Amino acid sequence: MINQLCVLSTEKLWFPEVDTALCEPDGLLAVGGKLNLEWLKVAYDRGIFPWFNEQEPIIWWSPSVRGIIELDEFHVSKSTKKQYRQLKARITINHAFHDVIGACRAQRLDKEGTWINSSMMTAYNEAHRAGFAHSIEVWQQDRLIGGLYGIMQHGVFCGESMFFNESGASKIAMWALVSWLKRHDAHFIDCQLLNPYLASMGAKSISRSNFLAKLKAARCYTIPDRMWQPQSLGEI
Asked: Last residue of some domain: 21, 38, 65?
């Protein structure tokens, strides 16, 4: 296939084959379209995700190398376990999605800028209201100290971002997520792009073709009815 950047129309929901994504920058697939629930569902189902800055058009990606976490390969360090005990952390699901995505935005905005722009905030909050996007929250008493959010429509949890206001709180959120997914026999976590922080927890890189094969296999999974209802978790 020819590698080329595709310009999408807002009139028709359509994405090109991911194998046509550019090699440089790696995975750049298309520009344009719409950023709403309907487009997000189709994109994630095909291994595509949006990533763009505030002043840019909507940009869609499918990198040639994908970061994932196999649930049985997740590594939780002794320091994370110790921090969990010291904080007396309490874990909830979908209690504060808007606050979590806002905290993820704020933490990155303060440091290096963020792709979690106003359009992203609107789209993912809409996805959450539709039962498509979910959050894990870490609390110390009534203070939100960490969390993460992502998309799940079959056996794969597609992680979007995480934050911490106390050291180790985002790793506690990931630990809670992995435990929850394992409890419900889910398949794996899509991390999109691998980085040292994720690698320290057991994330690895696989090829796009391998990722798409695993994504296809995960479509047979049916999400249990109560899995993402707002609730508090017990011990991890």
From this structure: 65
How far is CA 200 from each of CA 61, 177, 194, 206, rounded to the nearest angstrom?
24, 16, 10, 16
Amino acid at 193: L
Domain of residue 33, CATH code: 3.30.70.3550
User: What total number of domains does the chain contain?
Assistant: 2
Residue 216 lies in a domain: no
Gap between the terminal Cα atoms of the chain: 46
The SS3 of residue 83 is helix
Q: Does the residue 124 lie in any domain?
A: yes
CB-side neighbour CA atoms (13 Å) of 150 = 26
Decide if 90 contacts 153 (C-beta within 8 A).
Answer: no
Which domain covers residue 18, as residue numbers?
Answer: 6-65
Give me the phi and psi of 111, to 5 degrees please.
-100, -60
The pLDDT of residue 134 is above 60: yes
In Å, what is the CA distance from 122 to each residue of 4, 16, 73, 157? 29, 25, 34, 20
At 69-93, the pLDDT tens digits run: 999 999 999 999 999 999 999 999 9
